[in-house]
Amino acid sequence: MTISTRTDTSTLIARSDLSMRDISPEIVAEQDRIVSLVRCGSYDREEVSNAVSECIGQLGGIGRYIKSGEKVAVKPNLLRAAPIDRAVTTHPEVVRAVCELLLSQKCEVVIADSPGGGTPFTERALRRSYSESGLDKVARELGIELNFNLSFKTVAAPNGRIIKRFSIIRAALDADAIISVPKLKTHLFTYMTGATKNTFGLIPGLEKATFHSRLPEADDFSEMLVDLNELVRPRLHVMDAVVAMEGNGPNAGKPRKIGAILSSESFAALDAAACMLMAISPAEVGVIKAAVGRGLLRRDLSDLRIVGADIQEMIVKDFKKPKSYIEARRSQSALWRALGRMSRAYALRPVMMKERCRGTENCGECMRACPRNAIRSRADRPVVDYGKCIRCYCCHEICPADAISLQRSFGGKIVKGMIDRKTKEA
Ligand code: SF4
Ligand code: SF4
After folding, report:
1. How far is the CA of 370 from the centre of ligand 2 (A)?
2. Interface predicted TM-score (ipTM)
3. Which of 49, 175, 217, 345 is most deeply buried (CB count within 10 A of its CB)?
4. What is the pLDDT of residue 91?
5. Whose CA is nearest to atom 5 of ligand 1?
6. Does 26 score more than 80 pLDDT?
7. Helix (H, G, I), strand (E, B) or coil at 303
């Protein structure tokens, strides 16, 4: 893959039907914001295959993005090794459909990801993730490669606003192009995870946790995600929103059917459309705000064009939001702003449920995921030092046993009570 700085025409270099000199920046800007939306009611193989073909077809077809014979890294969301029906990972039928389209283009395909923050980038961990997510079967049946190359390289990001260097896994750098295949889920820290956040999995293993440590505020973290996307620039994003995750995602939420496949070359436009499907306000999501700040999307979304199905008919109005999103909306009162300095006490904090925990010796994933080393082991159980904890929820995200709940401290409950009373009075 060629890492390049942003130019007005760089995303279109693979389009065989367009000549570079024919493309004006206005046309590119218009095309960058198109999102294709198709209904897909189940993970039946034929239905998914048809939906993915139609979805990419509405954008001009796979040949518009990928040249015949190119080496393509397909990047699913493999947050952690979890059963397929938990909706933690991209469904294998969606990955299969994308790979089949690439094979029809005579491409060389490799499926590559470095799973969630607490998972080391090792062959053993990858094997487990591929197996649980059903991707080993897809790869075997299609005769394509699963990535086991554990090397990575540090790449300069001269145009990055907040981060100027990223370590990126070799499998992505060695490919001519990346196709991102995210899973639509809620996210306690960033409110949603879709196209923009999926790219974070190109950073190797435990190194991901260092970004949480350096960027504890969700808005800064989101700026970093946009820096990363602008650097690696997946040519196309194809989102699995057939069954999404609602509630306290991206790991401990519940599967919820939306029945959609979405696709776009714009990570920001795709995530904005995905927010709408979940009835989450795009304006409150960090990655959308960061993209708007860079002119990648208009603030009023007037440049977002959704083609295909009618999104208004597909919005899941009662989609359960993450606890952090609900509370952030409540806390937008004047009183809350006045109480801003008490936000640490107010914020939800991770509480380990000893009876569910598998033990730090057996598991310990929360300890490895914590970017602040705020979790230590006592009598084979994790204990959080709340003085160090930055409320990034990486531990909650990675726990395989749903053994971490989010609760408020005594002081936080008092602040919340004050805010709730004032909000009711207003
Ligand atoms: S709390 Fe969860 S992640 Fe941490 S040791 Fe227990 S089971 Fe593992
Ligand atoms: S203990 Fe705090 S800082 Fe550590 S991973 Fe959990 S939420 Fe983040």
Report:
1. 5
2. 0.99
3. 175
4. 98
5. 364
6. no
7. coil
For residue 338, the model assigns a pLDDT of 55
| Top mutation candidate among 404, 405, 406 for ligand 1, by most atoms within 8 Å of CB | 404
Task: Check whether 313 has a pLDDT greater than 60.
Answer: yes
Spatial CB neighbours of 261, under 8 Å, sequence gap ≥ 6: 37, 38, 40, 48, 51, 52, 55, 94, 238, 239, 240, 241, 242
DSSP string for residues in 200-264: GGGS-TTHHHHHHHH--SHHHHHHHHHHHHHHH--SEEEEEEEEEEESSTTTSSEEEEEEEEEEE
Residue 209 is predicted with a pLDDT of 85
Question: Which overall architecture, per CATH, does domain 323-425 show?
Answer: 2-Layer Sandwich (3.30)
Cα–Cα dist 229/199, whole Å? 7
- CATH topology for 10-314 is Rossmann fold (3.40.50)
- Say which residue the tokens 């990570």 belong to: 267
* Mean per-residue pLDDT, 213-226: 93
Instruction: Name the one residue in this structure whose structure tokens are 């919340």.
Output: 416
369 lines ligand 1 (CB under 6 A): no
Q: CB–CB of 162/214 below 8 Å?
A: no
The letter for the amino acid at 288 is I
Q: Under 8 Å CB-to-CB from 22, ≥6 apart: which residues? A: none
Binding site membership of 60 for ligand 1 (Cβ less than 6 Å): no
Contact 275, 288 (CB under 8 A): yes
Comparing C-alpha atoms, which of 207, 169, 212, 162 is closest to residue 187?
Answer: 212
Give the residue extent of every domain in the chain.
Answer: 10-314, 323-425
Structure tokens at 409: 């401290």
What token pair was written down for 23?
């493309």
Tell me the per-residue pLDDT of 329-360, one tens digit each, with 9 for 90 and over.
766 555 555 555 555 666 789 999 999 999 99
Residue-level pLDDT at 330: 67
What DSSP line would sit under 61-115, residue for residue? -GGGTS-TT-EEEEEE---SS--GGGTSS--HHHHHHHHHHHHHTT-EEEE----
Cβ contact 248:188 at 8 Å: yes
Q: What is the pLDDT of residues 58-101, one digit of tens each?
A: 999 999 999 999 999 999 999 999 999 999 999 999 999 999 99
